[in-house]
Design brief:
Blueprint lengths: L1 H29 L6 H9 L13 H11 L10 H12 L9 E5 L20 H4 L17 H5 L5 E4 L2 E4 L9 H5 L5 E5 L4 E5 L7 H7 L9 H5 L3 E4 L2 E4 L10 H9 L5 E5 L3 H6 L25
Antiparallel strand pairs: 1-4, 2-3, 5-8, 6-7
Length: 303
């Protein structure tokens, strides 16, 4: 009796296995979806960071968009120029020179420079603190709770003395920090050189109001604009025309930087070999690294 039971069980399992195999085989044919080989090749060429810097959910979705929807081949900020060239070759198109995209933090005020700061007892996140009106006097500046730091998967941005600071040696330009900042003071910018000139402030209030909340904020005095046509003052804030920007700054641009009373025109990014050589025998201050949005409105990119 036991042998018969075992035999029936084994036979039943064998029949079920055969039936299920047939069903799966039929389903694989019936519901088969052809995958463009180019999309698979592009996936292999992409770095696989799945950071979303290209504007798509992950590398797979971007690869399909390039292969099937003729999306631009140079949107991978992590892979850079070499990746763009590889993808372009797969698609049989040409791609011009692409510049690396990196974040700039448009605030240069450390804790000591911020006036009107009050004790904050809420959730230690910028997104939460941004909903409170009296955390600090400046409604545009960095809140310093590290939402950008927590969002970065490459350990490339840290809050130092209350200010978001980018480590450009590690940064791949994925844009996660930009999306995490509730005040939009971090902007992804095409770097024409390893160091870029930036306005490290995003306060659009009038000068007297800026002075009352920050020791270093731009007061819109216009000294930079008078010294160089590269600068204009918009909404009380100095703005750089990056279309006219050159990696080799002219004397008038450097003069404008010197004339800035609040020293908000700062070079950010990796120091050049010449800068490193100059700094060998001297103690130099840390390079401030900036980017931007405010609790009162969505600010536009300032440069």
């Amino acid at each position: 009796m036991g042998a018969v039971t075992i035999g029936l069980s084994a036979g039943t399992l064998l029949i079920m296995a055969i039936v299920l195999t047939a069903v799966l085989g039929w389903a694989s044919v019936k519901f088969h979806v052809d995958v463009d080989q180019r999309a698979l090749d592009i996936m292999d060429a992409l770095p696989g960071a799945n950071c979303g810097g290209c504007g798509y959910v992950g590398c797979g979705e971007y690869a399909e968009a390039v292969a099937l929807e003729h999306e631009a081949v140079n949107k991978c900020t992590v892979g850079g120029q070499n990746c763009a060239l590889a993808v372009a070759e797969i698609m049989g198109v040409e791609v011009g020179e692409t510049m690396p995209y990196r974040p700039i933090v448009h605030c240069g005020a450390s804790y000591a420079d911020r006036l009107g700061r009050n004790e904050y007892r809420g959730e230690k996140r910028c997104a939460a603190a941004n909903l409170v009106t009296d955390v600090q006097g400046c409604t545009y500046g960095c809140l310093g709770f590290g939402d950008c730091e927590n969002a970065c998967e490459f350990d490339a941005i840290h809050v130092i003395d209350g200010l978001a600071t980018v480590d450009y040696d590690k940064c791949v330009g994925c844009g996660a920090c930009t999306k995490a900042c509730p005040r939009n003071i971090i902007t992804i910018t095409p770097f024409k050189s390893e160091q870029m000139l930036a306005v490290t402030c995003s306060n659009k209030d009038k000068g007297k109001d800026v002075i009352s909340v920050c020791n270093v904020g731009c007061i819109g005095c216009g000294a930079c604009a008078r010294a160089s046509s590269l600068f204009t003052v918009q909404d009380n804030l100095s703005t750089i025309n990056y279309d006219a920007y050159s990696p080799t700054c002219s004397l008038d641009v450097l003069d404008a930087c010197k004339k800035c009373k609040r020293q908000r025109l700062v070079f950010v990014g990796k120091p050049s070999p010449k800068d490193v050589e100059k700094a060998i025998d001297m103690k130099v201050p840390d390079v401030v690294e900036p980017d931007f949005k405010t609790s009162v409105d969505d600010t536009e990119w300032r440069g």
